Prior knowledge:
Elements: H1 7-10, H2 15-19, E1 64-71, H3 74-90, E2 94-101, H4 106-115, E3 122-125, H5 130-135, E4 158-161, E5 164-169, E6 173-180, H6 181-187, H7 202-212, E7 214-215, E8 231-237, H8 242-251, H9 269-283, H10 298-301, E9 308-314, H11 317-327, E10 332-335, E11 345-348, E12 351-354, H12 361-371, H13 378-382, H14 392-395, H15 397-404, H16 412-423, E13 428-430, H17 439-449, H18 451-454, H19 460-476
Parallel strand pairs: 1-2, 1-3, 8-9, 11-13
Antiparallel strand pairs: 3-12, 4-5, 5-12, 6-9, 6-10, 6-11, 7-8
Keywords: Signal
InterPro entries: Bact_solute-bd_prot1 (IPR050490), SBP (IPR006059)
Protein name: Sugar ABC transporter substrate-binding protein
Amino acid sequence: MKASKSIGAGLLSVLLVSSVVGCGNNEKNTASSTPSSSAPSSSASSGGEASKTPEKTDTKKEKVKITYSMWGSAEEGNVTQAVADKFNASQDRIEVEVVAIPWESYMTKLNTQATGGQLPDTGMLKEDGVIQWSSEGMLNDVSAMYEGSDSKPLDSLAYKYQGKTLAYAAANEVLLLYYNKDMFDKAGVAYPPSALDKAWTWDEFVATAKKLTVDKKGKHPGEDGFDKDSIVQYGASVENLPWQLETWALSNGGGFYSADGTELRIGEDASVEAIQKVADLYLKDHVAPLSVGQTDDGIQRTIIAGTVAMATNGAWNVGTSLNTAKEEGLNYGVAVLPYMKDKVTLNTGGANVVFSQTKHPAEAMEWLKWYNSEENNWGLISSGIWMPTLEKWYTDESLTRKWVENPNFPPYDEYKSAVVDYARSSAARPAAWFYTNHTTDFNTLLGSVLGDVWTGKTTAKDAIAKNLDALKAAHSGNN
Length: 479
């Protein structure tokens, strides 16, 4: 998922208009208040007089009004308000008003409101801002949001800090391996495995990539006469945006952070070695094009451009770019990631939060639960931009088929194994911003530090060692 205008909570478009189905799940939130439903009863007056007819009393309580902030244009705000209006009409206790703020000024506006004690009740927050805002006491614990429900979000989709659940991702996204089936067929090479128990090792991945890398003379890496400067088709590309790069450090037995997010691990040998292996795909193995980890358009530059046989990136690419490419003739497939020592993929998703300044946390949670439901985001899910968050969509075959059996996805069995089952397996781990702070500063610095590693001017070991103190300072918020 992009660390800028996040797909999980921020991709708002006219898709939302067609995505609303009825009034959502309408599950009763037992934490919310219920209105009085009876009028005062009449009684006989003293002295034997006939009882008087009581005056009519209006017992209907006024709706609790809550505000929901989002980044987007006024038009996008109107689209989201239309969704909120359906929620408002579905019950008589809560009324939601949507406040749209331009992306460029969204966080500035929220910070100003926070200082003045005027935050909205609930709203969007960037993935990398959730832990920071919680550390400053600005977010409510939402762990009660799904109490009494028939399903709750996957555990890996909960933002947590100091034992509290601060938010659930509004959508799920996992990192995958995409590949061009025609390139594999032409080379006579077996497709990457879609089943986790058959995942390739890193060495198998590199060996396959060599078979699919071809220079102008038709030579492959390792063959006599192969020219690394005249490659016409690369076998692989591993996305090296900093947040995605952590996948390989974890897979190699290292990581960027400790499990609780308090300590930095990027300086460990296993972490450094993993980064170097990714760099060596270009530098030594000659199976990948040069990428400096600065732009989030990896699938467009590789699989869709027709220059690379297989590439890693997020599940959202199915809906944001691959559907169009498929209509134009791209024959692509999806598989699980290879692994170094442990099988790992990262998941992410933008957050909707309840701000601590609200006077109506229960009502805010009820709105978010309704708004986040799959039924109310169906256009985004069925197109392949979002994945569901509730566990039942991964375990109930009828729901899984409703989700996956449509022309926007690869074949059902392939996608179910490589994406649906993968997302709830032990390999799926939350991206760092689900549990640690200052990831923006850390990732920005790391991206800069690794620039010369990708081009071979220095090694990952030397680059990390030279900048380890600065990376620690960025992680602690003291850079």
